[in-house]
Amino acid sequence: MRNIVWFVDYICGSLHSELKKKKPQVIKPEDVRLVLKLLVKNWYFLLTIPTVAAFLGYYYSYKLPNIYQLKTEMLLKSEKYDYKSALYQGYVGYDAYAKQTNQERVLKSFDLISEAVRRMDIGVSYFNVGRIRTTEMYRNSPFAIEISDLDESLYERPIDVRFEADHFLLEYKKDGVEKSIKCSYRGFHKTRDISFFIKPTFSGKISDLSFNNESRYQFIVHHHDNLVNRYRSGLAVEGLEYTSIITITLEDVSEQRGLDFLDTLNLCYNNYSVKERIDVNTKTIEFIDRQLKESLDVINNVEYELEDYKAKESILNLNKEETIYYEKLVNYDEEFKKLELQLKTIAQLEDYINTSKEGSLLPPSFYVPAGDAYLSKTLEELYDMQTKKNASLYDLKDDNPMVKRTEKSFELARRDMLAYLENTKRAIRSKMVEVAKTTKSYENLLRSVPKAQRDILNIERRIAINEKLYNYLLEQRANVIIERATITPESEIIDKPRSQGAIKPNRDSIRNNYIIAGVVIVIGIIVIRFFFIDKYESPSEIKAITDIPVIGGIPHIKKMMPFNSKDYVDSDLAEGVRRIRTNLQFMGASMDKKIILVTSMFPSEGKTFTSVNLAYLNALTDKKVLLVDFDMHKPNIHRTIKIGNTEGLSNLLSGTETDYKQLIHKVHPNLDVITAGPVPPNASELVMMTSVTDLLEDFRANYDIIILDTPPLHLITDARILMAVSEINLMILNVKNATKNNLSDIEAFYEEGIAKNFAIVLNGVKMSRFAYLYSKYDYKYAYKYGYSYGYGYGYKYGKDA
User: Fold this and answer.
1) Model pTM?
2) Is 664 in contact with 672 (CB distance < 8 Å)?
3) What is the DSSP pairing of strand 758-765 with strand 550-555?
4) Residue 725: CB partners within 8 Å, gap ≥ 6?
5) Which of 237, 247, 525, 756 is deepest in the core (most CB within 10 A)?
6) What is the pLDDT of residue 367?
């Protein structure tokens, strides 16, 4: 790590030198140093978290099953018939009914997909459970389960199957409880939760599966509605613009099952599109058959009547004039019958419109009177409106204003058509009255014919009328049967279902996203540590963000060396204190500063440690130094120097001792120490006494430097009181507490202006940072090769200064 920090410092120094040559300066070396510091400090996060994230991404993507996309295309026929006969010239609405939007809605309908799912028989899914990945099996499962009864709570739940030598086990969880059912290899199995029959899908016995005990299998029983909704969500139906081609795509974890489903869906759709028109055709034939039966019954009855009448009476042939009257009557009677039939068909059409289901307005062609242009046009408009409504429902909700407007227009058009049909029925009835009047006139002309002959004529007329009507109905029935033969599906498969390959998951993308997420987490950790957790670890870092003077740092040491040892004098600790000692001389050089107050915000930040070392190293410069322990709440100087504390400052301030010289401990020819003495009950009140000022003045008269070790500011106010008489105030900040919040507290105190000549000393600096980030280039070489020189400030102290 020391080498890494040295490299960072070297790079930053080089950048600084290069950037100084260029104007304007774009990148500050401090910014680069900060970034590199963050990278070095968090290298283990940068290394481990993205690596773990990459592994998790690989593991997760490996576990995910492939999802295949299957595609097919169908062409919607714009015309339903290949020829144009008179029967279908008035059959309007087919083209409008076959619009893409309508068919897209039909293809995604619940009922159609439900029929496809039911035909495929895929209510049970089978899985091969591997150590890492579970693979779904379709058509290659070694066994099949036929479920006859299943508890509702077990739908969509995995049920494990474990094959043993002479039995197999079903294992599942119900209501949070693990359950295991032991089953034999023979017969039907009935339990409280599940009743089933298991059979092999290969040529053998189900017990043969027990040879591979390492293989684990699962099956899931699907609820039919859940399965339908799953396929609906995975199915996409889209019409190609400006064409009548519909593209159907499906996503499924099983490639072959997806292909089979699209094939089955196409089949169900074609059956659906044919079924409705076959139903219409069947209703038309049933209507015609009823009319044929009625006509045939009439003909048979009348023929029997004619034969009986001729057997009773000897009837001669009619003359020419009577024959003409007879033919006229037959023609008018035929016309009357056709008007009567037309009236029935209009009534049937009216009833069909009133009772047809929403979205299926498609009446038989037999119901549409030939040559009625208005009725054909109105029906076509209804079909168009119905198609628009279905198309709007494909994208909009039922309560949408556009849908409501279309529904209202459709209802108005339907009412108009029903009114038109009612008027048409009145017109037909009026026409029937006119035909009846004409028929009556011809019947009057035949009154001159003898009664017997006239009766024969009427009977024959009835036979002729019904025979003509019967022939007409037979012709119409033949046309409708021909129509059925021409009914074909509304679509044609132009591209059979094909696989587009695996489209999901994108494993590379997943792994990259995991790595990116890992990097983001690292950045988040670095940001959180930087703003909330990270501590300032060198004086230069604190200098960069605060206006408070920072006069130096004291390195972290594991064991204190004796003050009188050469190792201590040559140590990094001594060098750090010397730098602080030197910088103190530049804090208001015009003033005679003798009293130095040392405090901290929190306990255990090293203020006593700093006070002792600063006092000792100042004593080495041939200056007379006095170290006073003003922390009478929790004194510690006597423990650090290892001297007695039976009497001290508390005795002096409380009046039990009057001469401070009697309390001095001489630990060095130039260093005197006054300990705190016994802990008094009113230490803060003693500090507030006026005698403290007089005492400090006595100290000032006899010593060059007086160092006061005081209690922490956050806990006790003693230091605040003493700052009124001290010339220099040092705030000791330990690296362990050197956070942004604590530095903000120090800045707030500094801005109060209570302490004059206020400065920060950073304690506990790590040796690597102390050597390279703190000492800088001007000092580290001087420290290494000769301590008796001036440390870059031009001063020279004693022989071991």
Assistant:
1) 0.56
2) yes
3) parallel
4) 595, 692, 693, 696
5) 237
6) 56
